[in-house]
Amino acid sequence: MSDKPRIFLTRELPPKTMELLQDQSVLTMNHEDRYLTKQEIMNGIQGVDGLLCLLTDVIDDEILAANPALKVVANFAVGFNNVDVDAATARKIPVTNTPGVLTETTADMAFALLLDVARRVSEGDRFVRAKAWHGWGPLQFLGADVSHSTLGLIGLGRIGMSMVPRARGFSMNVLYWNRTRLAPSEEASLQVTYCELDELLQQSDFVSLHVAQNDETRYLLGKREFSLMKPEALLVNTARGPIVDEKALVSALQSGQIAGAGLDVYEREPLLESELYEMDNVVVAPHLGSGTIGTRTKMGNMAAENCLAACRGQLPPNLVNPQIYD
Ligand code: DGY
């Protein structure tokens, strides 16, 4: 019998990661291009050392209980809101994520959505493809200026921070709100201004979300917060859907409380509030934040290395619950 770790993978990952896993482990996996059910995950982890899963797999205590010998839950994502970390911690199971490698790629996506919704690129694309365009016009598809506008960053972690040089490239004025305020010298060198959340919402032309999803950030933006925003403001969300009350967002868009939104994430993925499918002032992407070949390969290799390390009894490099070793 092989002494390689036995790993269960819930969906195919990029080719280089597959090579790594096939070389270093005894791999069993879902070969279909679809989510697994809870029961299928519970069946899949029978007799394995490690579970390599995705942000779409809800890993709760019932799943963890299905294999008391499980040595790791390695998530292929920086966000780990899909894993019941408290339950894993109680069972002394390490949970890992993939921080750092997707930072720039996700910031690029946030900026792509910001530019798209501001300059109505997707809307114009639909118009042209519908053969509705009969020539240039001075009043067609007028958008919002990005240069010299004010960007409000909600969250200034790795991805939020990566928005700053991008914003500077467009001569934007950058406000931020974060759990921890930067030192004055850091604010000065980054040229960012700290604001309370309400003030940031009131002053920003673009509001971009960069906080993790947890109990404190669920519905961080709802009816009251949208009522504070400028009517010409545009919202960008590449973080997690439940940070925004999606019904309240639809109402704010319908009533003109805000002008538009660029969304990559949704409250109940893959479903959207039905009105969002029809709104021309909303750009909707299918959770593509980290979606480049290079970044998904780095995430895959990182998740695989985390999984392999924990299966071998080593400290996995990207552990989110270090308290299991206390
Ligand atoms: C993550 O890693 O949390 C991203 O949402 C994946 O795109």
What does this structure look like?
The protein is α/β, with parallel strands linked by helices. It folds into 2 domains: 6-101 and 293-325, 3-Layer(aba) Sandwich (Rossmann fold), CATH 3.40.50.720; 103-284, NAD(P)-binding Rossmann-like Domain (Rossmann fold, 3-Layer(aba) Sandwich), CATH 3.40.50.720. It contains 12 helices and 12 strands. The chain has helices at residues 15-24, 38-44, 61-65, 85-90, 103-119, 121-129, 158-169, 184-190, 197-203, 223-228, 246-254, 293-311, and strands spanning 6-9, 26-29, 50-53, 72-75, 95-96, 150-154, 173-177, 192-194, 206-209, 234-237, 260-263, 282-284. It has a 7-stranded parallel beta sheet with strand order 8-7-6-9-10-11-12, sandwiched between helices. The chain has a 5-stranded parallel beta sheet with strand order 2-1-3-4-5. Helix 1 (15-24) runs parallel beside helix 12 (293-311). The radius of gyration is 22 Å and the shape is globular. The two termini are 33 Å apart. The mean pLDDT is 98. The structure holds (2R)-2,3-dihydroxypropanoic acid. The site of (2R)-2,3-dihydroxypropanoic acid has 7 residues, from loops.
Broad structural category: alpha/beta
Strand order of the largest sheet: 8-7-6-9-10-11-12
Oligomeric grouping of the chains: single chain
CA-based gyration radius = 22 Å
Helix content class:
25-40%
Rough shape? globular
Order of helices and strands: EHEHEHEHEHHEHEHEHEHEHEEH
Unreliable residue stretches: none
Largest sheet: 7 strands, parallel
Question: CATH homologous superfamily name of the largest domain?
Answer: NAD(P)-binding Rossmann-like Domain
Share of residues in strands: 5-15%
Number of strands: 12
What's the number of helices?
12
